[in-house]
Design goal:
The protein has about 525 residues and is of the alpha+beta class. Among the domains are: about 200 residues, Spore Coat Polysaccharide Biosynthesis Protein SpsA, Chain A, CATH 3.90.550; about 80 residues; about 80 residues, no CATH class. Helices cover about 30% and strands about 25% of the residues. It contains 15 helices and 28 strands. It has an eight-stranded mixed β-sheet with strand order 3-2-1-4-9-6-10-8, with helices on both faces. The chain has an eight-stranded antiparallel β-sheet with strand order 19-22-16-15-25-28-27-26, covered by helices on one side. It has a four-stranded antiparallel β-sheet with strand order 18-17-23-24, with no helix packed on it. A hairpin with a 2-residue loop joins β13 and β14. The longest helix has 20 residues. It is elongated, with a radius of gyration of 28 Å. This is Minor teichoic acid biosynthesis protein GgaB. GO terms for molecular function: hexosyltransferase activity. InterPro entries: Glyco_trans_2-like, Nucleotide-diphossugar_trans. It comes from Lactococcus lactis subsp. lactis (Streptococcus lactis).
Length: about 525
């Protein structure tokens, strides 16, 4: 018996298929005695099948070239499994490449942990990029899912499964099927292994997120969720009074893409309504912590789901006050505080001696409880700003909240002005916290000396990298790091001033320190037309 069976369905990707096979047969683990490859042609119209047959002729004992005319993945995988004999099985897409020692590392891990039947390996692109699912690979170890429920498995491509568990694995037709089958296996075992010292690579444009994003554009994604996830799967675990945290994490991770996109145009109004009811029902049965980590959703979208969750579970928001801050909790879970609320400057228009700003307030506090002020630094007077709610927050085709935006105009040459104050009214007390940039006046004066009219800010970034894309005459000397400010002053509308994280290491520290005088630490600035 071979140690590893590698099952590869393919269609028309002859170049990728060639590279994948070469990366397997050149492994540091002896290929002849340890590995078999099952190649399954799925209606290829080019020379892919001939390539698979060629490899079978070279390694007749290790490589099988099969065909399936079925469009049903169940039939394809069943065919492969019946003709494979390896102790551990992995299902691959043809866009994958093996690092040269990956099979040796997995084999070593199985020897060190003989009772483990599932081993997962890191999956990243050829440039070394990883997503958040790879955070669990910081060291090789056994993962107990009760202790690490956030360490989820949703994609078969980077998972080795012992053959004794294969009959639990439903041949996947869609990501939901794949994720649900993997989750059933992991829940049954209660643990799995991860290795950190090797990896698989995926080709450009076909990362795990691509698979999810592709699926949420298809009608079947929603019908499987409506029929299988919400009506069968959730009911099964709700009988135990609480959905296990690991399962919550799997469901919430996958469904967030569908919620944020709003579904494919092919969905009927009734299908949209049914899906909306079902995903809200799901969110009502998961922890608020899981809602907070939905990175595909905005804060206002999360706020709606948290409101629904609290209402369903007969809970409510709670506020805790002190002399310095106000903290917002939902079902004993910390949600936000005034000191953590930020504003995002979405546009700046310079006009004569004034700076006109359009800002968005990033907060979990309800708009009815928020007041914004433009204050004189010396507290000579205070002007309340009107919160605009003209921008709708959509969650799967339904308006659920309003964006909290405001406009403000400040004189650039008045150093007494500070932007901005945020307050929450509670009983007879109003607590105010400054969320201002101490160097904003310096920066605004600098902007007025340029010919640029519009600037957009993204406060989610925290780097300070400058790149000036500007035509430079052949005789003109390069910009020195000490003349940065004067060069910014001379930028015109045909130039772009962009902050790039990728060139971070190229800039000297003195350069970055100089920019911090003008930019708040989490500003990412783009200047253009």
């Amino acid at each position: 018996m071979f140690k590893f069976s590698i099952i590869i369905p393919y269609k028309n990707n002859n170049n990728w298929l060639n590279d994948l096979i070469e990366s397997i047969i050149t492994q540091t683990l002896d290929f002849y005695s340890n590995v078999e490859i099952i190649l399954i042609n799925n209606n290829s119209s080019n020379f892919s099948k001939e390539i698979a047959d060629y490899w079978q002729q070279l390694f007749p004992l290790n490589i099988k070239s099969l065909s399936s005319n079925s469009s049903d993945f169940t039939s394809i995988y069943d065919t492969a499994l019946k003709t494979s004999f390896g102790e551990h099985v992995i299902f691959l897409d043809e866009n994958i490449l093996f690092k040269e020692d990956i099979l040796e590392k997995v084999d070593d891990f199985y020897r060190n942990y003989p009772d483990l039947k599932i081993v997962s390996v890191p999956l990243g692109d050829l440039n070394g990029a990883f997503d958040e699912l790879n955070e669990k690979y910081y060291r090789s170890r056994e993962i107990i899912i009760k202790d690490e429920p956030q360490s989820i498995l949703v994609n078969k491509t980077n998972i080795f499964i012992n053959r004794s568990l294969i009959h639990y694995f439903e041949s996947p037709t869609f990501l939901w099927d794949e994720a649900l089958s993997l989750t059933e296996i992991v829940m049954k075992e209660g643990r799995y292994g991860v290795i950190s010292n090797s990896q698989l690579y995926y080709r450009e444009g076909r990362d795990p997120h691509f698979l999810i994003q592709h699926d949420v554009d298809e009608l079947q994604f929603y019908t499987i969720f409506n029929e299988k996830v919400s009506k069968i799967w959730l009911e099964k675990y709700k009988k135990a009074d609480e959905i296990p945290q690991y399962i919550q994490n799997v469901l919430v991770y996958i469904i967030q893409w569908a919620i944020s996109k709003g579904g494919p145009p092919i969905l009927s109004i009734e299908e949209i309504k049914e899906f909306r009811r079902n995903y809200i029902a799901l969110m009502n049965n998961v922890s608020i912590e899981n809602i907070l980590i939905l990175h595909q959703l905005s804060q206002r979208q999360k706020l709606f789901l948290i409101k629904e969750n609290l209402k369903y579970n007969r809970k409510e928001f709670k506020y805790f006050f002190d002399n310095q801050d106000i903290n917002l909790f939902g079902d004993e879970i910390f949600l936000d505080s005034l000191s953590k609320s930020t504003f995002e400057i979405t546009s700046i228009i310079t006009k004569k001696n004034r700076i006109n700003l359009l800002c968005k307030l990033n907060t979990m506090f309800d708009s009815e409880q928020i007041s914004l002020y433009l204050n004189s630094q010396e507290d000579k007077y205070s002007k309340e700003l009107k919160i605009l709610q003209d921008k709708e927050v959509i969650l799967f085709g339904e308006v659920v909240e309003k964006e909290l935006t405001f406009e403000v105009s400040i004189p650039s040459d008045d150093s007494n002005f500070k932007l901005t104050f945020i307050s929450i009214r509670a009983k007879d007390t109003v607590i105010k916290l400054r969320l201002s940039n101490k160097s904003f006046q310096q920066f605004s004066k600098l902007l007025l000396k340029t010919k640029i009219k519009n600037i957009s800010y993204d406060t989610l970034k925290d780097y300070f990298i400058i790149k000036i894309q500007k035509e430079v005459s052949p005789n003109k000397k390069k910009t020195s790091k000490n003349s940065l400010v004067s060069d910014i002053k001379s930028v015109d509308q045909n130039s772009r001033l962009t902050l790039y994280q990728k060139i971070k290491k190229r800039l000297p520290r003195s350069f970055k320190r100089k920019m911090k005088k003008f930019l708040k630490k989490y500003f990412h600035i783009t200047i253009g037309k």
